[in-house]
Amino acid sequence: MYIAVDAMGGDHAPRAVVRGALRAVQEHGIAVLLVGDRDAIARELNDAGGHESSLIAIKHAAEAIDMGESPVAALRYKRDSSLHVAFQEVKAGEAGAVVSAGNTGAVMALAVTILGTLKGVDRPAIVTAIPTLGGRACLLDAGANVECKPLHLVQFAIMGEIYTRVVRGVTSPRVGVLSNGEEDSKGTETTRLAHEMLKKLPLNYIGYVEGRDLNSGRVDVIVTDGFTGNVALKTMEGFWHFLQGNLRALFTTQWTGRLAYLLIRRSLATLQTSLDYAEVGGAPLLGVNGLTIIAHGASTPKAIKNAIRVADESLRGEINQQIVTSLQALPEMSFIPAEFKRGRKFWSQLKERFRAREHTERPGLESRADEEKKKE
Known about the structure:
Elements: E1 2-6, H1 15-28, E2 32-36, H2 38-48, E3 56-60, H3 71-77, H4 82-91, E4 95-100, H5 104-115, E5 125-126, E6 128-132, E7 135-140, H6 150-166, E8 174-178, H7 189-199, E9 204-209, E10 221-223, H8 226-252, H9 255-274, H10 277-280, E11 282-286, E12 291-295, H11 301-316, H12 319-328, H13 346-361, H14 363-375
Parallel strand pairs: 1-2, 1-4, 2-3, 4-12, 7-10, 8-9, 8-10
Antiparallel strand pairs: 5-11, 6-7, 11-12
């Protein structure tokens, strides 16, 4: 089964994407379908010496979605974009997953509208691997859902547990909900209800975890809403840049610092590798009825290679089937008020999120849509 790769998505596309795909073929034997401008892809393959590989195929797409483009506008007016065509290949059964380093909003919008969500999933969630003292932990949601209901957090916990077990190989992943304290009384009404639900499920649920536990290795799966998760990720990124700046000053201002650097440079290189997003490759969008991996916009060939590897491992592990089976086995939580069980569908949230941006960037779209509605 091919992995469909959006060859035109990302800051360094198509060169970095094509070269990363070629490395995935050569190092892991993964079949790749490169989607985008046929001539541009062929040139890059020819330059990299991979044009003769039987595991690489090209699917032409005449358009590309820009990184700053409105996802809603891309949905309406770029039906022949590389990203749109890639998702259509998955829907038609010609490919098993989509990998893209392109516009994240467009990836999420197209994934949901073309592929739909898995049975039992209300909101797909972005899973991001973060470094810990014991290796890596999975945090979700990392930005897809700003507001969540308790049941959404429960679904995130189940999907994250399955992903950690299937892809990362952790036998019994420890699951925790991010809160402002470890006591049962802490958190919000949403987290408290999710906490009570998770305690009754057959998961290795350890309870609440605090911000200081994100990198401690105490848990393997950290569950939160997309707003909190994204803030936590950006905070960690900011602190790493702050630490790099201080270390650089420490090791370059005096001869003693330069000597100390020579003694510990191997340890620093190991630390830098553990923090390198290219090692992870991409963030899966779990809960969609078709595997989707969102790679970093500035992905290098190494990052693209690892994103394709993660997609292939998820496909082989039949992660979507396991998610559906686990959600169907959920016991009835009769003590949860009905208003907390179901929220708005993810696509409705996406439309609201991008409506203002679309009106600002291309105000003519709004008036055209209104005119069409009036005609109907």
